[in-house]
Hints:
The complex is a heterodimer of chains A (110) and B (116). Chain A has one domain (4-109): Immunoglobulins (Immunoglobulin-like, Sandwich). Chain A is built from no helices and 11 strands. In chain A, the strands form 2 sheets. In chain A, strands 2, 4, 5, 9, 10 and 11 form a 6-stranded mixed sheet that branches. Chain A has a 5-stranded antiparallel sheet with strand order 1-3-8-7-6, with no helix packed on it. In chain A, a hairpin with a 5-residue loop joins strand 9 (85-92) and strand 10 (98-100). Helices cover 0% and strands 56% of the residues of chain A. Chain B has strands at residues 4-7, 10-13, 19-25, 31-37, 43-51, 54-57, 64-66, 76-78, 87-94, 106-107, 111-115. In chain B, strands 2, 4, 5, 6, 9, 10 and 11 form a 7-stranded mixed sheet that branches. Chain B has a 4-stranded antiparallel sheet with strand order 1-3-8-7, with no helix packed on it. Chain B is globular. The relative contact order of chain B is 0.32. The interface between A and B is medium-sized, with 22 and 25 residues.
Amino acid sequence: ELKVEQNPLFLSMQEGKNYTIYCNYSTTSDRLYWYRQDPGKSLESLFVLLSNGAVKQEGRLMASLDTKARLSTLHITAAVHDLSATYFCAVDDNNNDMRFGAGTRLTVKP
Amino acid sequence: DGGITQSPKYLFRKEGQNVTLSCEQNLNHDAMYWYRQDPGQGLRLIYYSQIVNDFQKGDIAEGYSVSREKKESFPLTVTSAQKNPTAFYLCASSTRLGTAVRSPLHFGNGTRLTVT
C-alpha cells in the first residue's frame, strides 16, 4: 500500500526566510502533486510533477521530484504572510487513487 | 465558468439519520472522487468513480454509499452506519492528461457535516 509522509507537519517561519517541506512516498510512482489549502477552504492545485528530476516554480514556491529517492520537496523562498496555508503532497498510485500526505501547516510571521 | 459545485456548504443532522451530499461538475471530467478530511489531518478516499454507472471503494467506504448515474453528478450518502460522520467532505474530479497521466484533482468547496 502506498504511504505518503510529509515533514514537518507544522512550520512557523519568519517573513523573508527560506525553508523546505519534504514529501516521501513508499512505492514507485512518477506522478506527484502539490496542493494548497487555506483554513476552512478547499484545495487548489499548485504543481504537477510527472518525471524524475522535474522542477516547477511559481513565485516564491519551487517543487522538485526525485523518483529514485521517492522524494519531492517544496521550497519556499523569502516567505511572505500570504503563503500561510496548509500544503499537501499527493502521489498517484497507478491504481486510480491519489494518496495524500497529512499536510504541512505553514505559518509565516512578520 | 467550469467547476465543481458541492451543496450544501454546512449540514447538520441528528444521529441515526441518513444524509446525502451533492456534487456536480461541468468540467466534462470522467473521474470523480469523495474524500473525507478530519481536523488537522490529510484527505482519506471514500469512493471514486472512473465512469458512469461504475464506482469503487476507497480506504474508508464503510457507512457510505454513492451513485454515478450521470457523468456530471456523484452524490454521497452518509448512512447511520457511519460511526463518526462529523467531518469536512470534499468532492473532486479529474481527467487524463495523456494515456495514463491524471490531471490534478479539481476540488469543490466542501460540505461540513455535523452530526449530533
